[in-house]
Amino acid sequence: MILSLLLALAAVVVLHVMGVVPLYVLGATALVVVVCLAVLIGGRLRHVSYLTKRAKEVRAKWAGALTLVFGIPTVIERKMYLFISRKDELLIENEEYTLSLPLSTIGTILIISAGALRQMTGIWRIVCISPKSRG
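Structure (tokenized):
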């Protein structure tokens, strides 16, 4: 998104230098790009600020965030936050609920940064939590 905004601004600058686009169009484009960048960066900072604040509240040893995307045709994304508390619990939170799982009941936690899988699935991260086997 940021790259496309900067490319649009560069294209308008080049067109202005060539004399095709008047100065007010260049100014309006620059204003739109600055506002969009402020919104994108502000959203990211708000997200990181919430994660840091909430990690301090639950006294977490580890904190992370991920986005769940349900279905291919409908893009509904939900922010999820993962915390490992000092009480050895995995807390999974979103806007609607908080789920607490004791680490003693979890056998495996797999978190993959899906750089290679992004080309195939469009997902940024894959998280798998499996129960501990009884055996």
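Residues 71-76 have pLDDT under 50 and may be disordered. The first helix runs from residue 2 to 18.
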